[in-house]
Amino acid sequence: MKTFTALSVACALALSYTAVNAKDGTYTASEVGRNGEIKVQVQIKDNKIADVKILDWSETHPVADQTKTELLPNIVKNQSYNVANISGATLSSFAIKAAVRDCLKQAGLDVKEFGKAAAKAPQSSEIKVENADVVIVGAGGAGLSAAVTAAMAGKKVVLLEKNGFAGGNTSVSGGCFNVANVNQDNIKMTEGQKKIVEGILAEKPLNPLHQELINKLKKQWNEYTASGSNKLFDSPELHALQTWKSGDRKANLELVYTLTQNVKPMMKELEGIGFEWRPNANQFVGALWPRSNRAANFKSGVGYVDTFLQYIKDKNLPVQILLSTKANDLIIKDGRVAGVMAQAKIGTKYVLNAADGVILTTGGFGANVKMRNEYDELWGKKLGETTPTTNLPSATGDGISLAKKAGASLTQMGWIQLFPAGDPTTGATSFKLGENSCIYANKNGKRYVNESERRDVLAKANLAQEGGVFYVISSAKRALVDKDGRNAYGVKVADILKSGKSYKADTLEELAQKAGINGKNLVETVKRWNEFCKKGTGDEMGRPTCMDDHRLDEGGPYYATLMTPSVHHTMGGVTINKKAQVLNEAGNVIPGLYAAGEVTGGIHGTNRVGCNAVPDALVFGRIAALNFVK
């Protein structure tokens, strides 16, 4: 006969507590992720996690998508919320796991029992050899553009990506795309804009190409003025000269002109594979001219990524995409780059042979604090851990290191751009309400800069304000909020307001009170801005134009969004020629090696023009691949 002590009875009761008190059913909980609340649903059956779903969120596609495809299944598989976070989606991962814990608690389960660390997946020791015509390193905008171009010509392509998703920084960009003479018929030319053109024409030529572009622009301008038109004037030559001037004429003008001549054909290429453009161009922050276009059928830069990927799938193009696979070295045979050595996250090693060549499209080094402070020549080497960045964590300059090992020349590495208007906490641009080229006001309620200026000018002016922060003032009617209450990046406005990073009010006085701005000054500031928008001349900060999306004269509600500059773009990188061929220190082509996008230098000079980055990536990605097309 067995005897039971009080202690043994207590232990038995404790062990049975979970089973007795747990209730089968479906539970929901919400936690704040990167962009707002994430609503999670957990199904409990027989004291186990049967299923986990995301019911609602505003997290960034495709960056956070891996939490659905990998994190959630791992929670169910391991019966634990203590699974590895998804790289690049850490805040989303933490929020989901916290919501799962909440659901377990609601169900009456012992949360500690489901908090044991999941076992790490075993590493593969397999070595795979793949033969292709073209190997591309980096599946962002430049890499996808190159892959589609090469594959459409019948080339077999292997596309490497160290992240668990394709898209790179293109997927988290605003997605604006500068093109001259497209979607500008609704824009009228102002006196201020005329003075800008005439100022460029009056410049002293510094080299033969500069002279050639001025001559072409002068002919175009004379024809325009003789026509009597009041529509906005533009041309690839004006675009090139503005871009070159904005980078203090330090860029390679041949590369700049190659870009501006090819953006319109690239735009047509995108249309041909399913991309839809909005009918009217605008002027985004730092873009200098109303030639900024964006998608009608997508939000932000993810549209380019999804369009390329869908086209690859629909046309069954010969493109093999290896995700979570990092390039470790270039294969060089007989003085020619002939492939890539790579390794997957799960351990599998790859020998990727490229019959035609290798294209580096790995992006810049904006998220590499060590590199940006090593090279920085513009910001006093103060771009440390406390300086946020708009970039993905994966923007660490890997391609620059690979190219350097192969003998590539690097150029203009010291020029790093700060985006003028980023989230003060994360550096992201996804919290904006209205355009970032709307008027800026400091805590005193006053404007202090021409918001259509160069990005470096804006960033310096913004950093000079109290606390290094300022407010973007916009009208709710012009804030780019869709019918579902989401902003231009797909983030819920309700979540943005709840975060305390933006304020909404029916009147300017109320807005100022909520945001902690001097109300009297803000009212007067907006009054003067509205007068300028009505007259079209005489702005106190020297803006040449008031675009429709910047208007504040239609009444409230109004938004004030708190912003600060954040590391955005690294203008320097691998030296290339206009065919996107990589050059060595002697200026000679390195056979078999090409590069495109932010991994390269020489296109932007000391300051990148807003909305030139995506065109740069896509255009030169296409140009690189055209080297293989007969």
CATH topology of the largest domain: FAD/NAD(P)-binding domain
**What is the total number of structural domains?**
3
Q: Find the count of extended strands (DSSP E, 2+ residues).
A: 21
Anisotropy-based shape: globular
**From the alpha-carbon coordinates, what is the Rg to the nearest angstrom?**
27 Å
Number of helices: 16
Q: What is the CATH domain class of the largest domain?
A: Alpha Beta
In terms of structural class, how would the helical and strand content be classed?
Answer: alpha+beta
CATH architecture of the largest domain: 3-Layer(bba) Sandwich
Query: Kindly, what is the distance between the CA atoms of the first and last residues, rounded to a whole number of angstroms?
Result: 91 Å
Mean pLDDT: 94
Give unreliable regions as ranges.
1-20
Strand content: 15-25%
Describe the structure.
One of its GO terms (molecular function) is FMN binding. Pfam families: FAD_binding_2, FMN_bind. Its EC number is 1.3.99.33. Keywords: FAD, Flavoprotein, Oxidoreductase, Signal. The chain has 16 helices and 21 strands. It is an alpha+beta fold and 630 residues long. The strands form five sheets. Strands 4, 5, 8, 9, 10, 11, 19 and 20 form an eight-stranded mixed beta sheet that branches. Strands 13, 14, 15, 16 and 17 form a five-stranded antiparallel beta sheet that branches. A three-stranded antiparallel beta sheet has the order 1-2-3.
